[in-house]
Amino acid sequence: MQRFILRRILWNIPVLILITVVTFGMMQIVPGGPFTAGSSGRPIPPEIRANMMAKYGLDKPVWQQYLNYMGRLILHFDFGPSLRRPGRTVNQMLFGGNFLVDVLREHLRDEFGTAASSMTFAEPPSIFDSKALVVKTNGEPVAYIYITWRDRFEAVKRFLTLAPVMVSAQVGLVSVTLALLIGIPLGIISALKQNTWIDYVAMFISMLGVSIPNFILGIVLILVFALWLGWLPTYGWGESWKQVIMPAITLGTGGMAFIARLTRASMLEVIRADYIRTARAKGLAERVVVLRHALKNSLIPVTTVLGPMMAAWLTGSFLVEWVFSIGGIGKFFVSAVTDRDYTLIMGTILIYSVALVLFNLAVDIAYGFIDPRIRFD
Amino acid sequence: MVAERVPLIQVRHLKKYFPITRGLIIQRHVGDIKAVDDVSFDIYKGETLGLVGETGSGKTTVGRTILRLYEPTDGQVLFDGVDLFRLKGEEMRRMRRRMQMIFQDPYASLNPRMTVGSIIAEPLEVHGVAHGREKTERVQELLRLVGLNPYFVNRYPHEFSGGQRQRIGIARALALNPDFIVCDEPISSLDVSIQAQVVNLLEDLQERLGLTYLFIAHDLSMVRHISDRMAVMYLGKIVELTDRDEIYLNPLHPYTQALMSAVPVPDPEVEEKRQRIILEGDIPSPANPPKGCNFNTRCPVAMDVCFEEEPEFREVKPGHWVACHRV
Question: Do B161 and B192 touch, CB atoms closer than 8 A?
Answer without folding.
Answer: no
